[in-house]
């Protein structure tokens, strides 16, 4: 079996979605499947691909020409049109590139435009759906008319419902949340958990926003700082691991201007292996998310599964992305200081309670299991 993983993502890049793609590819390779990553030459970088992602399983990398190197940071109508034009043009170039394989491959993509341009090929296609727009609905409708061997990997129940409403047979859909790296967790778990029993450690890792909406981590910092200052919170620390240098600089400036207590530490982004090790040394994981249509309909939080796998109490926003999994050590908060304060104190209280959780339940959401289910679906066609 050969898989061409064709995507319109930046590589290499600190965005979580690129690490998800690389983890998916690595797990396909672990199943002795040949994989080639095809992506646009959208970003000038001197970073080494293999070193950036710490890749053990090397695979073929193919850059496809990209017309303009726009970053699409602003959501103006012009930028949206430019994005659609360049994305569609890239999809057509992918279609031309794939002609040399003569359909002897399985196409895996996260792009509705690539799905659409390759719909006439009668090879199997896996389309991983992360978002639904009016354009993607149109492209899906036209694609399923030409190819009945398209498998739709959907990340949320909402996406699954919309996809099936477009005429996709339910047998062609697989509901799989984002997932996490069980192999890496298992390796790190063998090390002794170095944890100060007298110290309660809160931890956050990731970006400060999602789809252009702030996660309001700053508000949590202010409440945490206020509790420490008033001695309502003792022997507690908050460690924040930023997704980029720019975001660390923003938080450093915020912490400095607000005269934040030194119990709150801001760190640069660290490799996944090091971050997972820090999770095993922590007690409570933070997942603040804005209460938006995007989050409630399309978000599948990788951090949520990572925190559970590390056995943490999860202090998280009261949004759909955090509520789908039944985890008894979850504490839900709203986006106001009173709710955040109450949640912080309640999460510490839960730490003292004996709540058993069967770790096998979370392993269902590992990348390994995720890829296994996709392969089984492919073999059933």
Description:
There is one protein chain. By secondary structure, this protein is of the alpha/beta class. The protein has 16 helices and 15 strands. The protein has helices spanning about 15-30, 50-55, 75-100, 110-115, 135-145, 155-165, 180-190, 215-230, 245-255, 270-280, 295-300, 300-310, 320-325, 335-350, 360-365, 365-380, and strands spanning about 1-5, 35-40, 60-65, 105-110, 125-130, 150-155, 175, 200-205, 210, 215, 235-240, 265, 285, 315, 330-335. Strands 3-2-1-4-5-6-7 form a seven-stranded parallel β-sheet, with helices on both faces. A six-stranded parallel β-sheet has the order 12-11-8-13-14-15, sandwiched between helices. A two-stranded antiparallel ribbon has the order 9-10.
N-end to C-end Cα span: 14 Å
Q: Segments where pLDDT lies below 50 for 5+ residues?
A: none
Name the strands of the widest sheet in spatial order.
3-2-1-4-5-6-7
Overall pLDDT: 90
Oligomeric grouping of the chains? single chain
What is the C-alpha radius of gyration, as a whole number of Å? 22 Å
Number of helices: 16
Could you tell me the number of beta strands?
15
The best one-word shape is globular
Q: Structural class from helices and strands?
A: alpha/beta
Q: Largest sheet, if any? A: 7 strands, parallel
Strand content: 15-25%
Helix content: 40-55%
């Amino acid at each position: 079996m050969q898989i061409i993983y064709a995507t319109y993502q930046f590589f290499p890049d600190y965005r979580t979605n690129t690490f998800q793609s690389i983890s998916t590819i690595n797990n396909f390779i672990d199943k002795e499947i040949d994989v080639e990553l095809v992506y646009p030459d959208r970003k000038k970088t001197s970073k080494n691909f293999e070193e950036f992602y710490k890749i053990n399983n090397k695979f073929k990398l193919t850059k496809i020409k990209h017309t303009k190197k726009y970053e699409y940071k602003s959501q103006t109508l012009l930028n949206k049109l430019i994005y659609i034009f360049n994305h569609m043009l890239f999809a057509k170039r992918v279609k031309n590139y794939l002609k040399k394989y003569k359909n002897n491959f399985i196409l895996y993509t996260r792009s509705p435009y690539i799905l659409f341009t390759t719909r006439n090929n009668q090879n199997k296609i896996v389309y991983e759906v992360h978002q639904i727009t009016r354009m993607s609905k149109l492209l899906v409708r036209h694609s399923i008319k030409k190819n009945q061997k398209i498998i739709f990997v959907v990340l949320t129940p909402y996406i699954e419902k919309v996809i099936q409403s477009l005429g996709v047979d339910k047998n062609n859909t697989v509901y799989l949340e984002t997932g996490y790296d069980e192999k890496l967790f298992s390796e790190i778990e063998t090390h002794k958990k170095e944890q100060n029993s007298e110290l309660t450690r809160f931890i956050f890792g990731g970006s400060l926003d999602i789809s252009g909406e702030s996660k309001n981590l700053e508000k949590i910092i202010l409440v945490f700082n206020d509790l420490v200052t008033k001695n309502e919170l003792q022997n507690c620390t908050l460690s924040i691991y930023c997704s980029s240098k720019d975001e660390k600089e923003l938080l450093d400036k915020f912490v400095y201007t607000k005269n934040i207590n030194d119990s709150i530490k801001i760190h640069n982004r660290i490799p996944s292996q090091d971050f997972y090790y820090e999770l095993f040394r922590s007690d409570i994981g933070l997942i603040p998310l804005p209460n938006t249509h995007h989050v409630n309909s399309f978000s599948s939080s990788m951090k949520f599964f990572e925190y559970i796998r590390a056995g943490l109490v999860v202090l998280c926003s009261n949004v759909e992305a955090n509520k789908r999994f039944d985890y008894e050590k979850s504490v839900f908060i709203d986006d106001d200081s009173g709710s955040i304060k109450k949640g912080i104190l309640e999460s510490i209280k839960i730490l003292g309670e004996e709540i058993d959780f069967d770790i096998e339940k979370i392993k269902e959401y590992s990348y390994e299991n995720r890829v296994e289910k996709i392969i089984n679906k492919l073999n059933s066609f």
